[in-house]
Amino acid sequence: MNDDQVLTGPGTQTRRALLAGAGAVGASVLLTACGDDSGDEPATPATGGPAATSGGSGAAAIAKTADIPVGGGQVYAAQGVVITQPTEGQFKGFDPICTHQGCPVSNVDGGTINCTCHNSKFAITDGAVKEGPATKPLTAKELKIDGDQISLA
């Protein structure tokens, strides 16, 4: 019996069949996540649903200003940005990928943008490292504010 025919549990399922089944499940999850959602839902934090377009400019609105709490922010991973509001009416954009080992940041809480892979924390004001192991700040992204709509510039 070769390695591909080693029984993996009750019954006669081979390792090859088990891996093929796992691959099919993974592909169906991926296809579901990338499917066409032809609805007009607003973008959602972290998961990023379809985004509405802002009036006249053609730029896709990522969020509304009211969606971003003062002293906090939201991660819009699918749109490739973290949006923060350090002080009332001041909005900042940052790359959502941690500079330590490339993990996506997971949330904005306690005045910092947080990567839960290795607990790096970045300032919501300028992306500077507040707590390592990261040693480089998050890259800033330019935002466009059009009324109450926020998009990438």
Q: What is the alpha-carbon Rg in Å? A: 21 Å
pLDDT average, as an integer?
74
- Shape descriptor: globular
Count of helical regions: 1
Helix proportion of residues, in percent? 10-25%
Instruction: Give the CA-CA distance, first to last residue.
Output: 60 Å
- Class inferred from helices and paired strands: alpha+beta
Q: Could you give the order of the helices and strands?
A: HEEEEEEEEEEE
Going across the major beta sheet, what is the strand order?
Answer: 2-3-4-9
Poorly predicted runs: 1-57
State which percent range the strand residues make up.
25-35%
Number of strands: 11
Question: Strand count, sense and closure of the main sheet?
Answer: 4 strands, antiparallel
Protein name: Rieske (2Fe-2S) protein
InterPro entries: Rieske_2Fe-2S, Rieske_2Fe-2S_sf, Rieske_Fe-S_prot_C, TAT_signal
Keywords: 2Fe-2S, Disulfide bond, Iron, Iron-sulfur, Metal-binding
Organism: Micromonospora antibiotica
Folded structure, characterized:
By secondary structure, the chain is an alpha+beta fold. 12% of the residues lie in helices and 28% in strands. It is built from one helix and eleven strands, in the order αβββββββββββ. It has one helix spanning 15-33, and strands at residues 63-64, 72-76, 81-87, 90-94, 107-109, 112-115, 120-123, 129-131, 140-141, 143-146, 149-152. The strands form three sheets. Strands 2-3-4-9 form a four-stranded antiparallel β-sheet, with no helix packed on it. A four-stranded antiparallel β-sheet has the order 5-6-7-8, with no helix packed on it. A hairpin with a 2-residue loop joins strand 5 (107-109) and strand 6 (112-115). The longest helix has 19 residues, at 15-33. The protein is globular and about 40 Å long. The N and C termini lie far apart (60 Å).
